[in-house]
Amino acid sequence: MNIADRISRLGTETAFAVAARAAAHKAAGHEVFPFHLGDMNIPTPANVMEAACRAMRAGKTGYCPSPGIPELRDALALDVNAARGTSYAMENVAVQPGGKPVIGKFIMACMNPGEEVLYPNPGYPIYESQIEYHGGIAVPYRYLRDERGFHIDLDYMESRITPRTRALIVNDLQNPLGAQCSKEERERLAEIAMRHDLAVLLDEAYFDIRYGGKSVSLSSIPGMAERSVILYTFSKKFAMTGWRLGAAIGPREIIDVIAKLNVNDESCSNHFVQHGALEGLTGDQSGPLAILSTLKERRDAAVELLNSMSGVDCPCPEATFYLFPEVTELMSRKGFKDDYAAFAEDILVKTGVSLCTRLHFGRPLHGEERRFVRLAYSGIDVDGIRKGLLALKTYAAQ
Ligand code: PLP
Hints:
Blueprint: H1 15-27, E1 33-34, H2 46-57, H3 70-84, E2 93-96, H4 100-110, E3 116-120, H5 126-133, E4 137-141, E5 143-146, E6 149-152, H6 154-159, E7 165-170, H7 183-195, E8 199-203, E9 228-233, E10 246-249, H8 252-265, H9 271-282, H10 286-307, E11 322-323, H11 328-333, H12 340-351, E12 353-354, E13 356-357, E14 373-376, H13 382-397
Parallel strand pairs: 1-12, 3-4, 3-7, 7-8, 8-9
Antiparallel strand pairs: 2-10, 5-6, 9-10, 11-14, 13-14
Bound molecules: pyridoxal-5'-phosphate.
Pyridoxal-5'-phosphate binds at residues 38, 98-100, 124, 171, 175, 203, 205, 233, 235, 241, 246.
């Protein structure tokens, strides 16, 4: 079989390779502490499961409308409006089998081959993959770290804009950094997007995963909803990663295109799962609240232990379930100056802690000298966090 040329431009999530390595280590009889994948070991709220089962028994097992069942589209528009101050209607919502498909569909709808798209680096690796796969030029922008945590280097971002720049991807409440934009950052981002007439993908996968304060969307700035598509997902807020349900929310003309892509790609998202999600949005909210309190307990345990380690410095994000500690000193002390893969392998073998490194989140940028790893605490409970990170602390002290 000949494989088409475009496939050589398709990237992947290399975190899955870390999962495979961790599984092999476990199969060989070792204890493994899974800090690598952003999957969740927390059950989906019972009312959501019951609603999906009820729908299945009631025969909601056939195809349904490509952009989603009207009740869910309506509920999503209301939910997003209430949290973001926007004025979307059902027609602005195209339900998707997960949040991830919104990325490729946004690119297909907005970007011509040869055009440039700005994306965060370190960032979710699927942006780079989809831009390049569809023949675009993936232009990374970077983050700076100060005592508050990470923030976008907006001057650098703007310096990378050319007449061919068509779109900007913003992942506020960011994977892997846990970063959130300040009000000033959001205002400047909006100003840049409008001045350069950019379409914007607002990846808000972690909008509802926060432990203090309030999430604010770039879409609430006047003029932004008209040029933005929100990536919404049920995966994190309702611990529904494997159910596969999300949505693209934005201006009617682009949502119609995305709904047409739905017809071509998957016909529709799972019918009875949409009824479960509807209950999630409109029913008892104790489930998502309990998920947040579980995650917060894990974050507090993990951040405290990481900051007690020699050569490790970890900001405490208010949102997401990721930590991105700096390990420059530890890595060089252990003799792995630039070799992230060998460092992660050494940690796995000596402590059982399985983690991702900066390399799993995009090609490092020119001049990057500080070293970072990423730990996810969505798939490991507090006991595992304590045991694993105490082993890592001993390793760091040696
Ligand atoms: N965007 C970001 C930043 C993510 O981290 C993820 C998942 O980890 C997604 C989108 C997609 O998630 P899902 O397809 O499960 O909705």
